[in-house]
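User
Here is a favour to ask of a fellow structure person. I am asking you to supply a protein in sequence and structure-token form. Please set it down just below, with no commentary around it:

Assistant
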Amino acid sequence: MNIYQVKDLPKNKIIEFFKMHWGSPEMVISSGIYDCSALDGFAVLNEEDKIIGLITYIIKNTECEIISLDSTEEGKGIGTSLVQEVENFAEKKNCRIVKLITTNDNLLALKFYQKRGFILSKIIHNAVEEARKVKPEIPLIGNDGIPIRDEIELIKVLN
């Protein structure tokens, strides 16, 4: 599996990926408003040079925050490889923790990250209501018919 730095890929390819998977490159979460197409990250491409996995992150002091993670081919280790790439990079930058925020309806993400050593650290009640004030296209109902209301922060302490 070849992993590339996002900065080495054409920007329009990154923007199109986010438009397809998120509606736009803009991510609104309680830690901030981000243009994911402008963030550092890593990507996995298939044989046709199509992005099949993409992770973005920011580093603030000794914390690395994963802002987005998408894999178009589940169960092939793409997401795991991308998370490990960010963890390795964060360790090199002397980060103590990697953290991320997901929504209460994203049970697949909660399962995925916990299986990889992340723990639940905080629930931010009604955070998505606040995010909708900036990005009204965030749906009211999410995965499995679950109302999207809260954000859940997960963290992983690095060695």
